[in-house]
Structures are given as structure tokens and as C-alpha cells.
Amino acid sequence: MPEIKVTPLGAGQDVGRSCILVSIGGKNIMLDCGMHMGYNDDRRFPDFSYITQNGRLTDFLDCVIISHFHLDHCGALPYMSEMVGYDGPIYMTHPTKAICPILLEDFRKITVDKKGETNFFTSQMIKDCMKKVIPLNLHQTVQVDDELEIKAYYAGHVLGAAMVHIKVGSESVVYTGDYNMTPDRHLGAAWIDKCRPDILISESTYATTIRDSKRCRERDFLKKVHESIERGGKVLIPVFALGRAQELCILLETFWERMNLKAPIYFSTGLTEKANHYYKLFITWTNQKIRKTFVQRNMFEFKHIKVIMPGYCVQGTIGHKILNGQRKLEMEGRATLDVKLQVEYMSFSAHADAKGIMQLIRMAEPRNMLLVHGEAVKMEFLKGKIEQEFSIDCYMPANGETTTVTTNPSVPVDISLNLLKREMALGGPLPDPKKPRTMHGTLIMKENSLKLVSSEQALKELGLNEHQLRFTCHVQLQDPHSDADTLHRIYTHLKSVLKGYTIQHLPDGTVIVESIVIKVSSSAEDSNTKVLLLSWSYQDEDLGSFLSSLLKKGLPSGIC
Ligand SMILES: [Zn+2]
Asked: Do both 286 and 376 map to the same domain?
């Protein structure tokens, strides 16, 4: 049976360094190539030695597909392509291709220039890596080679984020990357065809969360911000420069207008400026125009600060420590800082919640489900729910662990008109094409296509001679008569037992039932012992073995 194998090199029962290997129909695809925000050591990048211990990445992989520009999905890309070594195609959408190198460069600057780390990719490597990228359009089928095709779908989440449908023959896999099933203020909701993939690989960041309505969360957020300002306080919102920043800006902007508030909103410059540029450039990917009425000056002098964490904080990050109530922070070997602020966690993350994941399953109707990009305990819970509600298997492999799913691919076959006519003559009108029906014929492969024809036609088309295969067996019988009489008694017996069969007694001393030939001779030692020779063609295998066992029982007395 054909199989599809899925092995996470990262994001297996974890959030961070998404990197999933898929083997389908003899093709190997790497889905995402991210880094882990929570580590500074080897664990920062996926473990590519899983592949390289057996050879080069380029020889093994048919392509790499990047779902979106978040670093936990693309942060290891230049390391993989330029340092480990990969020269094959890399696919991502146009916005991802535009924004990805900016974030990679920013990441490199922080790691190398600020923290002084070595053994890291250079600016030139980022450029060289991006040269290998082939941009994808939404809903456009791209032929990677003769057999492997990929198609991108809108995933919401961040600008340019895509889900991808990977197909080889009739086998297919969908990888969601990160997605959002409810529209944002600035992006739409994820959508996919009812493509019935063999496996749907889904993120599961919020596997156990069912978020209340967005409106409530927004009202809650604005209320907290407003209260702090009324008290004369200040609000610091640490937010990823791309995506959530724009989302919250639109929210605050409209609120400020409505409430006629005068307190200034400051926005840190740098990445955000570039980000806003791309949001304008790829405006067709967004929901609504991003307004640009923010003061572009950095004036962060705080007395009384309220921090709102607006996203998911991976274990090991400062955000995660603050959220867990840590009051002292060690800053990368430098000074220890006291946390003198009030902290609130509010989810504005653009990930699908449990309800959204179930909604996507209903949309795509996969045969199997595989969860990545989530915590094991939460995955376990969602896995149970999915298996119960959809009666499909749900897998959650850890990093380096392979999930194998056997598939039942269907192969299209042309059927000759003659064979169909014969089938009609035998079985009445042609069957309902939606219902399976067994047909007999000879399968021939010609010019890369399969055809089912009658055996006579197959012989003719292939220029072959027909040979007949016959089975023979000897049956001993006690019958004190002449050979000719015994044969006649067999003929009479079979005529009474087998109704509806053509039975002939031929003058050459044989009895014939369909293709089965029966001959009689006497044993050399004892003329009362008869030896029956039965032979039949393979089509009459059932009848032949039935007759041999029938005759072994002997002939009833009283027949002549
Ligand atoms: Zn993401």
C-alpha cells in the first residue's frame, strides 16, 4: 500500500522552529524552516542532520515551502540553504518573499551585531537564499515537477500567510501554517476547497481555547487602556511589528476618534515603517486600508506602566517570564531588572482556536489529521475531540518521530467500448458511476495511460500469442464396468447433479463440462479400479475442483 510519511523536525508537540518533512508519492517536501525563539543554542534551528546524515539536502528534498514570514516559520531558511546547503526551489507568496528578508536581517542584526554570536548567517547569505525563492500566487496550481503540484490558499493570520495543498497523483496533504478562521480588522479569514486531503497538518496553538467574541476582547482591551490613561498612567503594548501592530493601531485609532481622546499614541519606528510600506504595497491581501496617523517619534519615558501582552509568548522568552509573574529579569548577562508594572494577558493572536480548527476540518474533509505547532497536553485534548466528532485518526508526532499513513490512491483507467458493451449484455444497463462495480478484463499500459480491454483485444494490440493454462488431476474410482460404461455412468451422474451446465459425451471417449475434460482408463493392476483424468482451464477453477471432489466420493449405485 502506498504511504505518506510526516516527520516534524521542529514544531512537533511544541511551538517554535516549525519544520515538517512530508514524503508523498516518492517526493520529499520541507514545510517551513523556522527558528525557536526560546533557545540560543543548537535547539534554535531544526535538526537537519536527520536528513544530512544520509546525504545532501538538495538530493533529498524536492522543494521547500514557507507558509508565512514569522521567524518561527522562516528564521532558519538562510542557515538551511546557505550553511547546511540546499540549492533546490523554495516557494512562498509574494508578500512573504518581500517581508521575509527584512525580518531575517533584523534577526541577524540582533543575534550577531548586538549579542555578538558567531556561526550565524550573514546579510549576503540572506540575499543568496532569497534568490532561490519562487513566488506563489493564491489559488494558482504550480507544477514543481511532472508529478508534484502545489497550490496556495489564503490563511489570514498575517500579510501573505498561506495554507498549501500538496498533490502527487491522487494523494495529497494540506499544511495550514498558522491561520485564522475569523477575519481581523485588517485581514480576512482562512479558506480552503473541499479538497479531501489524505492528511491535514494543522497548527494547534490554541487547541484548548474557545475564544469569546472578538468584540468582547476588544472592548476589554480598550477599557483597560482607557482606565490607565484616565488614572494618568501610561500603557506599553509590546507587539510584533507586523500584523498585530497594525491590528491594534486601527483599533486604538478608531477608539480615540470616537472618544475624542487627546493622549498621544507613540509608535516605535524601525521595522514598523517598513511593515506599513508592505501593507500598502500588498493592499489586496488586506481587509481595510491601514491608516497612517501615528506620531513617528520614540518617546518612551514611563512612570507608571501597564503592559499588555497581546500574543502567544513561547517558553524561555522574556514575555513568558513576565506573564508567569517573575518580578526580576536577568537581561542576557547584563543587569537585573525589576518588573515594576501591572501585567495583563490578552489574546489578540491571529491563530485559529479550537472552534476554528474544527471549522477547517469541516471545510477540507481530510481522511487523517495531524497536529503540530502546539503543546502536547493541549494537542491531546483536541485530538480526542477530533477523533470523536469526525471519526478520523488524529496524530501528534514529536520532533524526529515519523507518522505513517497508508493511502488508497485511485488510478484512472480507460475502458474499451467493447468491454463495456459486453458488460451491458451480461449485467443489464450500465451501472451507476458513483457505485463501485467489479469488471474483468486485461489491464494494459500504453503511452503512460492505463486501459482495460478484453483479453482478445489485448492480444491483438500487443501482438502476443495466446497460451492456455490447464489444471489436471487424477481421481481413482472403484467401478467394476468397462471404461466406456464408467464414462457413460459419469455422464449420467453429472447430468443429474449439475443443472444449467453444458455437459457433453463425445464419441472420442470424453465427457466435457464447460472447459473441463474427463477421460477414463483402467488401472494396470486391477481392471475394477478406474483412473479418471480431469483437466480444466483456469477460468473454471472452481467448477474443476468441485467436480474432482464430487467424483472422489464415487458414483451412486442404480445409475446406468
Ligand atoms: Zn505565525
From this structure: no
Q: Residue 525: which residues within 8 A CB-CB, separation 6 or more?
A: none
Does 105 qualify as catalytic in the annotation? no
CATH of the domain at 33: 3.60.15.10
72, 36 in Cβ contact below 8 A? yes
Same domain, 78 and 206: yes
| DSSP H helices in 43-111 | 49-52, 57-60, 71-74, 77-78, 94-108
CA-based nearest residue to 398, from 15, 14, 4: 14
The CATH number of whichever domain residue 281 belongs to comes to 3.40.50.10890
**Of 171, 203, 218, 247, catalytic:** 203
Q: Give the Å distance between the CA of 157 and the centre of ligand 1.
A: 7
- The answer to whether residues 497 and 543 belong to one domain is yes
Which cell goes with 433? 458511476
Residue 312 Cα to ligand 1 middle (Å) = 10
For 442-487, how does the pLDDT look when each residue is reduced to its tens digit (9 = 90+)? Answer: 999 888 788 999 888 899 988 999 888 889 999 998 888 888 999 9
Q: How far is the CA of 133 from the centre of ligand 1 (A)?
A: 19
Residues 398 and 428 in one domain: no
> 98 and 72, same structural domain?
yes
Task: Classify residue 243 as left (phi > 0), alpha (psi -120 to 50) or beta.
Answer: left
306 CA from centroid of ligand 1 (Å): 25
* CA–centroid distance, residue 300 to ligand 1 (Å): 28
* Reported confidence tier of residue 525, pLDDT bands at 50, 70, 90: confident
Where in the sequence is the domain holding 486, given as residue range(s)? 470-552
Q: Which of 306, 328, 345 is the last residue of a domain?
A: 345
